[in-house]
Amino acid sequence: MALAAGKPTQRMGSPVNNYQFGVKSGVTIFQGALVILAAGFARPGREGQGADNAAKAADAATYQAVGVAQETVTGSGADGDVKVNVQECQWLFKNSASGDAITAAEIGKTVYIVDDETVAKTSPNSTRAAAGKVTLVDSDGVWVRVGPGLS
Questions:
Q1: Residue 27 located in a structural domain
Q2: What is the phi/psi pair of residue 68, to 5°?
Q3: Which of 72, 84, 109, 126 is most exposed, with minimal Cβ within 10 Å?
Q4: 33 assigned to some structural domain
Q5: Which of 55, 17, 9, 39 is nearest to 149 (CA)?
Q6: Total structural domains in the chain?
């Protein structure tokens, strides 16, 4: 389930890079959210949107996971008027459920965005964008290396 409020998100190691991205107008990104760029503007991680799987897949193909938000922001005015601070690092996310749950067998493999705090092993009908590469799976969740160009 997508975040409804900001939260601290655990990271492993030091941030590799810090970025500022313009936020899509009218969109709220919560602290601790997995952030994607869609049409050049930041928004919370999500599956592709559209009326059918083809539209959802086309939408998801435009997303780029860039890191985790370091504060809660809401885009206002024009697209990009508000910026969000994002860090590239290894981040802890919730694991998907049942047949889509990530296991140690996926370490080193690409995993996919379910929402701004959950990742999954697969992308049914290509409707999920890549989140990044799995570095560890433990009882707390899935550690994923996330940053521009890493997925």
A1: yes
A2: -120, 135
A3: 109
A4: yes
A5: 17
A6: 1
Structural domain contains residue 1? no
Main-chain dihedrals φ then ψ at residue 124, nearest 5 degrees: -55, 130
Per DSSP, helices labelled H in 1-151 are 53-60
Structure tokens, 143: 């550690």
Q: Give CA–CA dist 56/41, Å, rounded.
A: 18
The pTM of this model reads: 0.95
Give the contacts of 101 (CB within 8 A, at least 6 positions apart). 95, 120, 121
Tell the residue number behind the tokens 């601790």, with chain if given.
32
24 CB-side CA count, 13 A: 14
pLDDT in tens, the chain (151 residues): 899 999 988 999 888 899 999 999 999 999 999 999 999 999 999 999 999 999 999 999 999 999 999 999 999 989 999 999 999 999 999 999 988 999 999 999 999 999 999 999 999 999 999 999 999 999 999 999 999 987 6
